[in-house]
Input
Amino acid sequence: MSATSGSLSWRALVDKASAPYARGGRIAGHFARGKLRWDPVFRHFLVHGLIAPHSRVLDIGCGRGLLASLLQAASHESQSGRWPAGWAAAPHAARFTGIDVMASDVARARAALGGGAIFVCADMRSVAFPAADTVVILDALHYIETVEQDAVLLRVRGALVGGGRLVLRVGDAASRRGFATSLWVDRIVCMLRGRGVRPRAGRTLAEWRSRLAALGFDVASQPMAQGTLFANVLLVGTIGPAASPS
Output
């Protein structure tokens, strides 16, 4: 498929995935469409097949459930024969559970997607994690302290079945300007939304990789901040049946 037709397919997916949020008002619909279209991580999920068909997905810090809506739209499009050539297999019939501490975001997710996914309003530091094939944590761990991050990651490791995958986006604290920019934006957003938490703890990419390796993950990483001033990195950790955390 040509670059042009692939781009059109992506816009169609974004429109389909953001449509449920428009029922909550114009602003909610525009937010969903803009976030899905311009944040590079969402397209990356589909192009590279980070979520396999029929997999159990746990999204920690799911916000308004945009990833769940995208997966549903992708499943529908692929079943209708509209899937871009050259992309990995569509995440057909993925079963999604999202967790977020913000009650307003969880309410928006439930209102938009109904019974198509499970959304839980809870703190990642204490809520029980269901068994999963893929765990997603995007831009969420820096809101808790380092020791709490480690505890969450250990519990994530326990929730993943053999061969499971962790998809984690973090800021690389070694990139001082980009990391400082992301923290500044986070603080502004938290203030505007009346959110009680603030960014607390970051790590360098090397430190993130070391922590995941100690838990038994084979880790691949790549920048995931295209078109922004941030220092975001996507870490994809996989485990095998024999791997054990330390």
